[in-house]
Amino acid sequence: MSENKLVEEEQAVVEQGVHNFSSEDKWVKPEDPLLLERLEWFKDQKLGLMMHWGPYSQLGLVESWALRHKHADITKELFDAFRAKGLGISAYFSKADWHTPYYWAPGMEAGSFTSRGPSYDPKKYPWLWEQFVQFTHEQIMELMTRYGRIDVLWLDAGWVNDYRDQNIRLGEVVEKAREIQPWLLSADRTVGGPYENLITPEQTLPERALHVPWESCITMGTSFSFRYEDRYKTVRQLIHLLAEIVAKGGNLALNVGPQPDGRLPETAISRMKGMGEWLKVYGEAIYGTRVCEPYSSGAVQFTQKGDTTYAIYLYRNEQEAVPEELFIPIQTAFSRIDLVGGQEALDYRRTDDGVAVRLPDQERQGLAPIAHVLRFR
After folding, report:
1. Residue 74: inside a domain
2. Residue 291, in any domain of the structure
3. Are 360 and 339 in contact (CB under 8 A)?
4. Sign, CA torsion 255/258/264/266
């Protein structure tokens, strides 16, 4: 491995606290038993695929275009294809809409500063704002009635909310949607309150474990949409990111931007396959797990499933030396330690701070793995 590659892998994958997200104390626990059940389903998932694809992906020159007698409903076809594979659907919806004249009305004063808000003051033009509210409700209900089962309504543009001047009466339309799809979770991003059922950090993850449902949306490359010559995170970086997020109680919504023709980039597919190969062996320590102390401690990430605790010991790069013993700061009672995907009933000794687990000799040969996963039971 080249020195530059080694340095790249050692760099942090994301920076802490880059994007705002709601604090844990703003989360409101739903009263509906079905929504509580669906939040447990959500917490079981751990890994999701997020995609941004639109006209902004059409970069460069194209000599000719394939023609159809009508522009296909990409959203419906995509949802149907994913649903056919047993995957849940989270539908993105931007509450701000800069295309409709009800939000960016023509002929209004632009002002002296840049803004993503409406081109007018809703208080001064309440009739115009009400048209935008009705337009927004109709758009959301179209999603709820024409695209099959939707598991999560993922709402962007947090500045459009019921607590400020841009009140779209979101609760009214979400409750109307739940008359049709009673299992629907809503993610009213950065707003807090009863319709932000899950918290959504963007391009970052919390410094500590959160005890409410949350999901970080993080790009596989450097951009949410497709970019030529993009730099993709390595499989090692992606697995490390996933392990830390899960240890802190969250899910990873991994964003991949399709190419202009709709295909996923070959590098992205390679990374996905690499993650899939790792998860086939070690997925029991990820899927369906819950948080347990001490959560995330240095190179070790902890998860729990029933009476079983997992410790995921991460190696920064393949050149890192694999020690004879792994020191795991665990205080949970156990009688046996297994190496997931390897030898069972490992030798270990108790220490003041936890346990030292002796690795089999063959585990110390060759390059360092992405991680060693230990099962305590």
Report:
1. yes
2. no
3. yes
4. negative
